[in-house]
């Protein structure tokens, strides 16, 4: 594994908006630390299979471990603090850690879709509360975001049932008051369908492809899918109106329908971004060409990291885009050259971007433990 030193790199990008003809934007990327460096197997703070990452307003870092079924807390400087939760079915225990978020009181919320619950950890007092979902027929709640006033939001999508039974029309974005058994709101029927081979993936996206949900501000959430096709859906939580933040530089095709007969049989021959889902016509496969990785609403702006995969190939390039509060694209540029990658890395995931613009990158190695590298991105000249 390569030991990195603190580095600064710069990127100049020109953009055009209705009010600005052209402008240079300086992007500075600084390597901070590796959360996993120097921690051996069996030692406190060792991460076996990192999955979700979130941070609180003080800069503390929370990493879920799918293998150990626990959450590891790190201080802002990357040093290990403590373990939170464990495997089990009681309060503060998990069957699966599906998603993490932190509310405006720095309480840690953890979605366990296998137990139909959200656990809320008050780390200052040590108490744990639970929200039990009593209105879900399936375990398809995959996202979690906190909202002001003890509320939280998630995206729920139902699958078709055997012999053509119709789905209930109650999917999409749900907003809950923590601890109450009935949802307080349902928005945006765009998410109410699973794959239909006869309808384009742009129109009917489903649970098999993965959802994205982020808080833009107290009144708006941003909803999307793992496949990125050039726009983000911004939902007003009060009026339920939907607007779009669009990047005209993202052009089709957004995915490739590989077809079951062309799907590589060997894992060594897999296509980057290939996924599968089960629809009315059975199993079918796509290679994602534009893959949404992580996004964050920061000071009214939307930051988004996505990957562009080589069509029917193995190459890829990673990009950062930034929209202002009016949905105007103010920055768009490649970041691949500014985030060094060890040659032994088999998979790279951009797991989280926080309010300090710290970008958390999970590298899975073919022969080594995973690494969690942390960078800081600064954008000047807007």
Rounded Rg = 20 Å
The percent of residues in helical segments reads under 10%
Count of all domains: 1
Q: Give the helices and strands as they follow along the chain.
A: EEEEEEEEEEEEEEEEEEEEEEEEEEEEEE
Strand content: over 45%
* C-alpha geometry: globular
Give the biggest beta sheet.
5 strands, antiparallel
- SS-based class: mainly beta
Placed side by side, the strands forming the largest sheet appear as: 1-2-30-29-28
Question: What do these coordinates show?
Answer:
This protein is an all-beta fold and 382 residues long. The protein has one domain (8-34, 133-380). It is 0% helix and 48% strand. The chain has no helices and 30 strands. The chain has strands at 8-15, 23-34, 50-55, 61-65, 70-74, 80-84, 86-87, 93-94, 99-102, 108-112, 117-122, 127-132, 145-147, 151-156, 172-177, 185-187, 211-217, 220-225, 231-236, 242-246, 255-257, 274-279, 282-288, 290-298, 301-309, 316-323, 329-334, 345-353, 358-365, 371-380. The strands form 8 sheets. Strands 1-2-30-29-28 form a 5-stranded antiparallel beta sheet, with no helix packed on it. A 4-stranded antiparallel beta sheet has the order 3-4-5-6, with no helix packed on it. Strand 15 and strand 16 (185-187) form a beta hairpin. The two termini are 36 Å apart. Mean pLDDT is 81; it is low at 1-23, 192-196, 204-208 and 276-282.
